[in-house]
Amino acid sequence: MDNQIKNITNKYLNSKHRLMDIFHDIQKKSGYISENDIKSISELLNISSVDVIQTLSFYHFFKKKENAKYNIYINESIVAQMYGHKRILQAFENATKTKLNSISADGNFGLYSTSDIGMGDQEPAAIINGVIFPKITTYRVKEIIKEFRKGKSAQDLVNSFGDGHNQDNLIRSMVSNNLNRRGRVIFSGYNSEDALDIIVDKTPEEILHVIKESNIRGRGGAGFPIGLKWQYCRQATGKTKYIVCNADEGEPGTFKDRVLLTELPKRVIVGMIIAAYAVGASKGIIYLRKEYDYLIPYLKNSLTEAEKNNLLGESIKGRKGFNFDIRIQLGGGAYVCGEETALLESCEGKRGEPRNRPPFPIEKGFLDNPTVINNVESLCAIPKIICKGAEWYRSLGTKQSSGTKLLSISGDVLYPGVFEVEWGMTIKDIIDMAGGLDTKAVQVGGPSGKLISKKEFSRRIAYEDLSTGGAIIVFNKTRNILDIVMNFTKFFIDESCGSCAPCRYLTVILKNKLQKIIDGKGVENDLLELKEWGKKMKIANRCGLGQSAANPILTSLENFRSDYEDAVQSDKKYISSFDLEKSILAGAKAASRFPAV
Amino acid sequence: MNKNITFTIDGKKCIAKQDQNIVEAAEDNGIYIPTLCHLKGIIPSGSCRICNIKSNGRFMTACTTKVQEGMVIENNTEEIDELRKIIIETLFVSGNHYCPSCEKSGNCILQALAYKHRIMIPRFAYTFEVKQVDATSPKIYLERNRCVLCKRCVRSIKTKDNKNYFAIEGRGYTSQIILDKKLALNMSDEEAQIAMKNCPVGCILKKEKGYIEAIGTRKYDKIEIGTEIEIEA
Ligand SMILES: Cc1cc2nc3c(=O)[nH]c(=O)nc-3n(C[C@H](O)[C@H](O)[C@H](O)COP(=O)(O)O)c2cc1C
Ligand code: SF4
Ligand code: SF4
Ligand code: SF4
Ligand code: FES
Questions:
Q1: Are A223 and A337 contained in the same domain?
Q2: What is the pLDDT of residues A456-478, one digit of tens each?
Q3: Whole-angstrom Cα distance, residue B199 to residue B140?
Q4: Domains in chain B, start-ordered, CATH in brackets?
Q5: Number of domains in chain A
Q6: Chain-wide mean pLDDT for chain B?
Q7: Which residues on chain B place their C-beta less than 8 Å from a C-beta of chain A?
Q8: What is the pTM of this model?
Q9: Residue from A77, A111, A73 nearest A94 by CA
Q10: Alpha helix (H) ranges present in chain B?
């Protein structure tokens, strides 16, 4: 057996729960995971080889076949499309003499597309051998490929650094933060470590009380009260409890967690430590989406620094019995792994299939241990609440939505980027803040949210009005609504885990119908059916992905009805592509008969 | 302590044991909730979604939900019936089902559910997805045109040392059932037989020996699915 594989699995104690890490290590060494590797892994881990394959084949970025020397993943998100994705793709195809989803004859270039990579503020973007290339132009494509042909590496072609810590020696990335607005909680000047000095003099119950009083709710989209979640987990029985930071950030149009991890990793870590203290947890995991793995050396260093300063490890801040450490779990490219129970499955080395609930993670989470899962932004807000108190925090935002929210604004605006605002801002103000002109539609909360029209621009972002994880995609009046909806619908089809029958295939049926309408073959009745069938998705599926997979169709049908009506044939009642007379004649001819029609 | 639980289904008063799931609790009370992926005695997967019921106004799958004191469950309503029909029809068009020539016809749960719900033809257009049949193992065929990805085989058929014979490859609508090639070499006749039996449709077929019962005389040829459970209220 291959010794290299043996060394790798040994490093992870031959545990099947570390399959993700094993794949990453092998792929790093040899570019892909071969049939032989699969066999070796299954023997070393004592599982069947189909079990290895089922995890391997679930994730977009693991390769089973020989990889090219340069693997080019081009982002196909809606914003990328608006900024010229098609042109860029063509340029890549021409320069590499390769078609999408194939490897060039010389084995040099593999060309693939990929779902939103979290760069909505600097599209079109691509990932080449792990290096992010934002704001690509056709000129740049030619240049990149020419240099690759000379043998340069992707890292060699980094020709500028983004702002802030993107210039850090451990990152050195072309990605920019585009932090356009700092607010009073997250991007405010203070030392988050002060919060740790405060908590170690208090009891966990006192901390829980402050967090509950602050009224802060989850920032990952679902908006569950954070204090309550922590309290439930504290009350759950279990020896080892876990705090998981959800850094999967996969909702198309969000990129704020990327900026937080780049600029404020320490605050995220301190937030996790506070959660650990309040909950009584001793282990932490940061689940990082594969697209952000360029941040790993930097994040690992932040963890090491924290350890050195006794913020992690044993007897934290000198408090006996307060032990906590954090590891990073890298994902493999699957949006659904942002769903908290799918995330746990993935952490356990499995396919990212959401679990049936109950039991909830606070009771049975990672390896059945009580687990708190919080979004990066949620955790990042915590230290400030500890420092300034619940009442101060509640003075920001609205009555039911306290504090600030990070918005990731992209699309047809002059200043795409991250904005920290107080809850309660109207959509109109948000558009104006980012410099949106001639705005026709706004996607609030990414594809799983709502596509709204002008008549709702006076609504406010708040849990009690328009709740959002922070993705705001702005479309001006030149944009075609149906194309937007198609892009989002395809996204859900690609990212469905495939477990629930409706999420797996009703989405495909809906997409086919939408395509029929886009092709000009639709009739009024198709709109009715889109709505009727789409509504079933909400109630039929297990997790948020399937439940919201028809939202783009449903909300656009409601708010942009006339765009659909313009696209269907108003004079026909049923499918007009089928010509009965012609078909009968063709059949008759084949049978040498001549009916009188 | 083994306290009984009282709840209602479509207004009928029911009694269940603690820790029972809704499907089985209903069955004990003579009420049939349609299921497809659920197989008694193994961990439910909640994947086909056919057993969707409404409890206290919220939809949930009856096979994965434990019955609770005071639950008010809706099972036989127009809304739920429509949802189930849509799911069944979705399953039909997502594969390629030619019942008249299928080995499972008459013993097939998908077919029986379609009969029960009076489905003549799916409302959705056929797309004739291309599926690969796998006949490489000595004991069984995988006729993937008929697989509904219920994972019954994954969950219930294991080697003596508890390894999985079956698994799912890929994700989303391109996912497919796979069989471990090496383990399949040593699959016993008995295991192959159970695998075929546990598959609710005609995807897992045992090689060499077909079905003993003739078509037309099989279980659901004679009675409608669920009627063995239902009793006159
Ligand atoms: C399909 C899907 C994708 C999700 N993706 C993310 C994500 O990328 N990041 C995130 O924090 N939460 C995501 N969530 C929400 C999580 O399930 C969970 O509610 C959240 O991480 C809890 O943290 P919070 O309470 O701090 O928001 C997703 C949910 C669904 C259904
Ligand atoms: S709703 Fe979709 S993504 Fe969620 S569990 Fe079901 S199939 Fe998987
Ligand atoms: S598996 Fe069932 S539904 Fe499919 S063809 Fe066979 S009998 Fe018909
Ligand atoms: S092969 Fe049969 S048992 Fe296995 S997933 Fe497919 S339909 Fe279910
Ligand atoms: S039987 Fe309950 S979801 Fe399939």
A1: yes
A2: 999 999 999 999 999 999 999 99
A3: 12
A4: 5-76 (3.10.20.740), 86-210 (no CATH)
A5: 5
A6: 94
A7: 44-50, 52, 59, 61, 64, 83, 86-87, 90-91, 93-94, 123-125, 127, 148-149, 159, 163-175, 178-183
A8: 0.95
A9: A111
A10: 22-28, 78-94, 109-116, 152-156, 181-185, 189-198, 219-222
